[in-house]
Inverse folding.
């Protein structure tokens, strides 16, 4: 396996920074997430666009919901 940040080969699964090769690469990757360089995107649907039967975020609870 290769380090997701620097692409250096990482072979020891007992490494506390695994899957990264070092603490430095682990922290640099974390910084990229926290600073917004990495993003997970998704399409936001309006209530009119949601498929039939989809739970809409209207504050209504489904049977069995607690809270």
């Amino acid at each position: 396996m290769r380090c997701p940040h620097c692409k250096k080969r990482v072979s020891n699964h007992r490494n506390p920074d695994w899957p990264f090769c070092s603490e430095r690469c682990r922290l640099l990757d974390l910084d990229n997430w926290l600073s917004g360089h990495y993003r997970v995107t998704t399409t936001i649907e309006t209530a009119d666009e949601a498929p039939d039967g989809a739970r809409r975020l209207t504050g209504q609870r489904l049977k069995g919901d607690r809270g």
User: Anything to note?
Assistant: The chain has one helix and no strands. The helical segments are 23-34. Residues 23-34 form the longest helix (12 residues).
